[in-house]
Specification:
single chain, 297 residues, mainly beta, 2 domains, 3 helices, 17 strands, globular, disordered N terminus
Length: 297
């Protein structure tokens, strides 16, 4: 009797509906992935690029709509290792000739290579921007600068997710000479209308960003004791910020702020060591009044 009861309890446990459902769902997910990989259907897609020129009175208008296709290599971070992506970049701009160009629009879309692009894309990202390019088979670098304010938005290639913004050109280097894994750095200078209340503090200058191909690894907040100096360093009409990777004698990031012409440059420089794939902010070298501290959004 005891043996029979034990066998019945064991059978009941093995037939638990919740456990069976989890196993079936896992098996279904694997099958779906395999079917998706196998279901590569030949297709032909066309997207029109157009330009129009109109005249109304003394005003001339040029409107340009461009579409570009490309495909990635394998091993896009966040996607199956053997999958490639088909990418479509659509740019649109409408300018009044002779006036300061207005911000255009860029739309980024992606599909698994082999899927018909008439289907819904894996993602669709639309931003006010002029252009976009891929980098290292892992990132979108989107040029969103306007007027005298340079800006690039960095998004993941695998899912279109926004990683960070930078107001200096993206700096690329590797973890070490032996380890070729890429790392990226940018400098985010907050706008006056930033939604993060902490960045509205008048002492804030910028945020130094240190990132991998799929995530931000570390951020450091740069501040100045004098709000007037911080405001000057944030102003693109008055200052030009720069970030550079220095490989020898010790690996570090150099941050510089220089006055714009016709003023003398009066460059202010700081540096942050790179130690064990991280920003060593505790040993940052800064001039009097300037501070760099670890920070998190």
């Amino acid at each position: 009797m005891n043996s029979s009861g034990s066998n019945f309890a064991l059978s009941a446990k093995n037939c638990d509906p919740g456990s069976m459902l989890k196993k079936l769902l896992a098996a279904a997910a694997v099958c779906a992935s395999l079917l998706l990989a196998l279901a590569k259907i030949p297709f032909q897609a066309q997207s029109a690029s157009t330009v129009s020129y109109t005249v109304e009175g003394d005003g001339e208008t040029v409107e340009i709509h461009n579409v570009a296709w490309q495909y990635t290599g394998t091993r896009v971070p966040g996607r199956p290792a053997d999958e490639r992506l088909l990418l479509r970049t659509t740019t649109h701009e409408k300018d009044f000739v002779g006036d300061i160009p207005e911000p255009g629009a860029v739309t980024l879309e992606a599909w698994p290579l082999g899927a018909d692009p008439k289907q819904k894309p894996l993602y669709s990202v639309k931003l006010e921007a002029d252009s976009a390019r891929t980098l290292d088979n892992c990132l979108w670098v989107i040029d969103r600068g306007y007027g005298d304010a340079p800006m690039w938005s960095i998004h993941r290639l695998g899912d279109g997710r926004h990683l960070f913004d930078t107001h200096v050109e993206l700096v690329r280097f590797t973890v070490s000479r032996a380890d070729g894994t890429p790392r990226y750095t940018g400098l985010d200078v907050p706008a006056d209308d930033t939604p993060d209340a902490r960045l509205k503090d008048p002492h804030v200058v910028a945020v130094l960003v240190y990132a991998a191909e799929d995530r931000v690894l570390r951020e450091a907040l740069i501040t100045h004791d004098k709000p007037a100096e911080a405001r000057q360093m944030r102003s693109f009409s008055d200052e030009t910020p720069e970030v550079a990777f220095i490989g020898t004698p010790a690996r570090r990031l150099k941050i510089a702020f220089s006055h714009n012409y016709p003023d003398a440059p009066a460059t202010v420089e700081a540096s942050v060591p790179l130690v064990k794939d991280d920003l060593d902010v505790s040993h940052a070298q800064v001039p009097p009044g300037l501070h760099i501290a670890a920070w998190r959004r």
